[in-house]
């Protein structure tokens, strides 16, 4: 099943046992999951994958769960990649695509990370998970915990999406609000987790979430016939998507599943919270805490990402870049996606629309480039973001106007 071999520190390269419960390295850095890729390549091939079920567990040899009986799945992954022809034309691209993560269970790409990490937590005998969240990750993890029969404690900003709170309550999670940001929620959990016997699942302080997210990279390669696109734009808060897609590409390259150049990985943040964009353009390897973070895209309101150095490295290694867009750009992106593609995307995904336009206008991306926008969730979770204005109201006997 899994060719999981060990955990490796992303900074000091220390090697840790993967079969005991681990959080971060002794040096304080995130741990990356390593596999025996040679053995994996001998046992599974892209051809073999074609026969498998259309979910992320089709890559089970490269996922961390040892025994299939611990796999907790609601059908996450293998989301569609669709061509955005009309939007492409508007933005100046001839080969524009959307990888639509809104079709995952719970309506967000967070389902992948939850499925991998909660399956592995269950396998390792963990009972109570505690998670700070901007909203969507918490509700997804709460729902997956419910299905696993595990307890979830979720702490989120009091101004998080009300739907995320409701989903947590629905799932029976202990749900707490904080008058602050996700970073405050994280410190509150850290202060008590050990004492209460909670397992903290803060982004990248638990090694297995990244593995679920990684399957987005495998899918993009497989769905394009193992020929990688020229660029992938990712909304970037904690940065897990970029780190994970880059990790997937490195693994696939080592197994001989892909060759040639990696796609440019492009991190998109909101101008109201853009620590990684700032660090990138200043040539820094780490970001600085972004004061006064504010944006309508709650999923990318992360003032300091724990894995920022890994994001910056992946962006630079692939010749990518970092872009910030305003909230007004995000609203415009939601409207364009709706009018031109019939798709209601989440605000984080909508941020990619004007980022792509900006990079096309500046010439960073070419018309002929195959560009993928990673829409991380469905807009149905954010009905209030659609601005309808005052709609015409008639009496039943009125005659409707032609236009
Ligand atoms: Zn280390």
Q: Describe it for me?
A:
Helix 4 crosses helix 8, helix 9 crosses helix 11 and helix 12 crosses helix 13. The strands form 3 sheets. The chain has a 6-stranded mixed sheet with strand order 4-5-13-10-11-12, sandwiched between helices. A 4-stranded parallel sheet has the order 8-7-6-9, with helices on both faces. A 3-stranded antiparallel sheet has the order 2-1-3, with no helix packed on it. It is of the alpha/beta class. The site of zinc ion has 7 residues, from loops.
Which ligands, by name, code or SMILES, are bound? zinc ion
- Rg, rounded, reads 21 Å
Which of globular, elongated, flat, extended, rod-shaped describes the shape?
globular
Physical arrangement of strands within the biggest beta sheet: 4-5-13-10-11-12
Features:
single chain; 403 residues; alpha/beta; 13 helices; 16% strand; globular; binds zinc ion
Short summary:
36% of the residues lie in helices and 16% in strands.
Helix-strand blueprint:
Elements: E1 4-9, E2 15-16, E3 31-35, H1 37-43, H2 46-49, E4 81-83, H3 85-91, E5 95-100, H4 110-123, E6 128-132, H5 136-148, E7 151-157, H6 162-170, E8 174-178, H7 182-196, E9 199-200, H8 209-223, E10 231-235, H9 240-254, E11 264-270, H10 275-281, H11 308-317, E12 321-325, H12 327-341, H13 347-361, E13 370-375
Parallel strand pairs: 5-13, 6-7, 6-9, 7-8, 10-11, 10-13, 11-12
Antiparallel strand pairs: 1-2, 1-3, 4-5
Helix pairs in contact: 4-5, 4-8, 5-6, 8-9, 9-11, 12-13
Bound molecules: zinc ion.
């Amino acid at each position: 099943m899994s060719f999981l071999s060990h955990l490796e520190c992303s900074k000091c390269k220390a090697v840790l046992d993967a079969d005991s419960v681990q959080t971060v390295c002794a040096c304080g850095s995130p741990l990356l999951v390593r596999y025996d890729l040679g053995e994996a390549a001998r046992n599974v091939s892209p051809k073999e994958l074609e026969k498998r079920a259309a979910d992320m567990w089709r890559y089970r040899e490269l996922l961390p769960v040892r025994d299939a009986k611990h796999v907790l799945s609601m059908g996450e992954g293998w989301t569609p990649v669709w061509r955005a022809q009309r939007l492409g034309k508007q933005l100046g691209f001839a080969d524009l695509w959307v990888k639509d993560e809104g079709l995952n269970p719970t309506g967000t790409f967070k389902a992948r990370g939850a499925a991998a990490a909660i399956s592995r937590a269950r396998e390792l005998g963990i009972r109570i998970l505690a998670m700070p969240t901007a909203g969507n990750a918490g509700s997804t993890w709460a729902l997956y915990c419910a299905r696993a029969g595990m307890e979830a404690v979720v702490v989120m900003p009091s101004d998080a999406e009300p739907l995320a709170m409701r989903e947590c309550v629905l799932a029976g999670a202990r749900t707490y609000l904080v008058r602050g940001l996700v970073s405050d929620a994280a410190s509150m959990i850290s202060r008590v987790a050990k004492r209460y016997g909670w397992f903290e699942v803060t982004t990248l302080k638990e090694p297995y979430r990244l593995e679920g997210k990684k399957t987005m990279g495998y899918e993009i390669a497989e769905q394009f016939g193992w020929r990688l696109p020229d660029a992938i734009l990712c909304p970037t808060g904690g940065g897990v998507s970029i780190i994970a897609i880059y990790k997937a590409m490195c693994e696939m390259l080592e197994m001989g599943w892909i060759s040639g150049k990696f796609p440019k990985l492009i991190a998109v943040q909101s101008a109201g919270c853009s620590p990684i964009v700032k660090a990138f353009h200043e040539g820094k390897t780490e970001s600085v805490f972004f004061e006064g973070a504010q944006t309508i895209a709650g999923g990318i309101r992360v003032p300091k990402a724990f894995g920022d150095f890994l994001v910056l490295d992946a962006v630079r290694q692939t010749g990518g870049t970092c872009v910030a867009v305003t909230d007004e750009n995000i609203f415009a992106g939601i409207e364009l996606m709706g009018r031109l593609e019939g798709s209601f995307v989440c605000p984080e995904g909508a941020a990619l629309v004007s980022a792509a336009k900006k990079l096309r206008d500046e010439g960073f991306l070419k018309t002929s480039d195959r560009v993928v926008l990673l829409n991380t969730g469905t807009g149905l979770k954010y009905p209030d973001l659609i601005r309808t204005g005052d709609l015409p109201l008639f009496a039943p006997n009125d005659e409707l106007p032609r236009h």
